Amino acid sequence: MPKITRRGLIKSSAGVLATAMTISSSRLIADPEEPILWEPFLDLCRELSEDQFQDGWDQDSYTKKLEAVLVRLQLSDEQKTKITRDYDDRAVDFPEIRHLHYERKFMVSLVEFEEGDIIPLHDHPDMTGVILCTEGHVDVQHFDRLNETSDRDRPLLQEERSIQMKPGTTAALTVEKGNIHTLQAREFSRMIDVFTPPYNSDRSGRALYYKLESEPYQERSGVFEAMTSSTRRF
Description:
By secondary structure, the chain is an alpha+beta fold. Helix content is about 20%, strand content about 35%. The chain contains six helices and eleven strands. It has helices at about 15-20, 25-30, 40-50, 60-70, 75-85, 200-205; strands at about 95-100, 105-115, 120, 130-135, 140-150, 155-165, 170-175, 180-185, 190-195, 210, 225-230. The strands form two sheets. A six-stranded antiparallel beta sheet has the order 3-8-5-6-11-10, with no helix packed on it. α3 (about 40-50) packs antiparallel against α4 (about 60-70). The radius of gyration is 18 Å and the shape is globular.
């Protein structure tokens, strides 16, 4: 079984753990060199996610802060061993997704891919997310949904960016930017993501998968007509 690697998923000494447990939230945010253990990490997610209740929430600023926190996450040896031990590849051509933490403001999940596993193009209704690659290599494509529709009254998606994610790489999406995306693993890979707010019955019920036409719409570069489905099957 591949081992968890990189960042806080690799190294943890008794000295590092003892130091990190005594650091205040404000100092952790301010000091980019300080490692962050699991419970302080959740406290910081909780603190930062309060921004979502403010008028004019600056989602770009929020995701940048969360990315800076996420790359400093360190799990204990016991946590790393449990994550590796509990892995079970049950889905066919689709990653295993395990929820590590869930509360009203945010959720944290572990996403584990076998080589070739893919999450088809999908959206996250009214959600903001940050993801960290801790192991492997995952190709990610982001799209924005345009306000206009095609002449068949189907959604039009504009390609927003493509990323090759390797250990230590982060990516973010907001309600308006890059919210629709697809991920495919080139090798065994692990990722940790944080969504604010978390999935609930309403947001899950509105989530869609998208299937793009093979050619750009009316020869518009990077713009594709899409079919939608509430499941991965079309």
